[in-house]
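re: that chain from earlier
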Amino acid sequence: MFTTMLEGTQEDWAHIAGAHMEHQVSTAPRQIMESLARLEAIEVGFGANQLVHSLMTATLARRDGASDQEIVAALCHDLGKLMSIPNHGAIAAEILKPYVADDIYHAVKHHQDFQGKYYYEFLGKDANARDRFKGESWYAMAEKLVDRWDAPAFDPAFPIDSLESFEPEVTRVFSRPIKAY
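^ sequence. v structure.
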């Protein structure tokens, strides 16, 4: 029986690694789905609550032929709002980081500055904030995430795909990290 890292054996660690992988496959997707459902309580002035917005964003990505990683990023791009609205992009990006390509990670992390094209001027900020990222490998991904899927996704009458319909993509993406940190 394992009681201390100081005396762990190869057999102990093989058993622990297997148990960790079972937990990852069964728990991470469920936790993401439950967290997404909690976005329904966040309205913050928009015509659609943040769950509907996230579902709309992901539905647009799915209908646009996006990859599983892109669809999940579209679905989870505002997940950080459960903890902090001003820092939501960075929080969501860190949740996604082990599971998605670097371009998708950076697109989610900086999506608010890309959205700024549509509203920063009304808040006394630089509406061209996205321009500082021109030349980055992920710039086109961020434009796609924001301009095609995120920015148009606030109409509560839009026919969205259900949260449950995204479970296969969420499970595929969150079951196995592509990077370990």
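Residues 32 and 170 are 8 Å apart (CA to CA).
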